[in-house]
Amino acid sequence: MKVSEQLQLRRRELGKTLQTISDLTAMSVPQVSNVLGGKVDSRLSTVEALADAMDASLVLIPKHLLPEVARLLSGKTIGPDDVPSTVDRLLQGA
């Protein structure tokens, strides 16, 4: 799923209007609509501002950790309790 699609989904989940997001980010409503609709290739700072306006964070995950992060987000257990979690490993730079 593209970042713009994830942001659009998040906006819908929160019930925030384009105008609300516009007010929170100081972007115009058409700009917010174009970014969320994937019509423009936005700067990272723009995407971060939109995510922040929707109480979310943009996170880069190394590809080799994606399967573990997906399992973690799905709520499935990953392994024994004494093994560091994926989040701990990611934050420690493992």
TrEMBL record:
A GO MF term: DNA binding
One matching Pfam family: HTH_31
InterPro entries: Cro/C1-type_HTH, Lambda_DNA-bd_dom_sf
Boundaries of every HTH cro/C1-type domain copy: 7-61
Domain of life: Bacteria
Protein name: XRE family transcriptional regulator
Organism of provenance: Rugamonas rivuli
